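[agent] plan:
  1. take the single chain provided in the ticket
  2. run structure prediction with default settings
  3. attach structure tokens to the ticket
  4. add a short note for the reviewer (M.T.)
[agent] executing step 1
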Amino acid sequence: MAAEIIPIPRAALHEQVAHRLRQMLVENRISPGAKLNERELSEILNVSRTPLREAIKMLAAEGLVELLPNRGAIAVELTEADVLNTFEVMAGLEAQSGELAAQRITDAELSEIKAMHFEMMAAYTRRDLPSYYRLNSAIHSAINAAAKNPVLTSTYTQVNARLQALRFRSNQDEEKWKSAVKEHELMVAALEARDGAAMRDVLMRHLTSKRDVVVQQLRAINANSKSSAKA
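[agent] step 2 finished; step 3 output follows
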């Protein structure tokens, strides 16, 4: 983590801190399994430990960090089984969101998604992964919101929180990133056509592809760790 001072507005301070920490976890500035150093984070975020601890509790409730007795908080590190189980649920939630959104989306909601897609394509052209991922995530959330089912949205938000860092890193593979962009183009087309079946299909394939990339990356990391341990 770079020792850069990041100013934060005083309003809703712990929520602002949670947002910044969430970004750091997603973008791998805090690695899976790493301990959250309160002193260092307080300096980086320019806040006292009270709002920082409240923010960490929020992230623990989301499943992004784990609170350990007498050891503080660590960034959650998912096993391969965790990844497979979570993506299995997430694929179903995304597919259902897409199908319902295609049936219920308003013209204004569709226009907003198309505008974000245009911005996301610009970020892809620049190979600006943080901006691309932020817009990508916003598009998926907007599709979920367009489904207009609060129970589905609540479940989606909770499960998706566990996968954000993994979904971010999956785009570091150039070919897979290119495929993901193509799938997003198909999503926009399916929404415009109000084609629920097509939307369900493309989102299911999109999540399955993400899962496969994430599992491959996880296996490569584990293989490298074992090789280093033997050296």
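[agent] step 4 note for reviewer: The chain has two domains: 13-75, 80-227.
[agent] ticket updated
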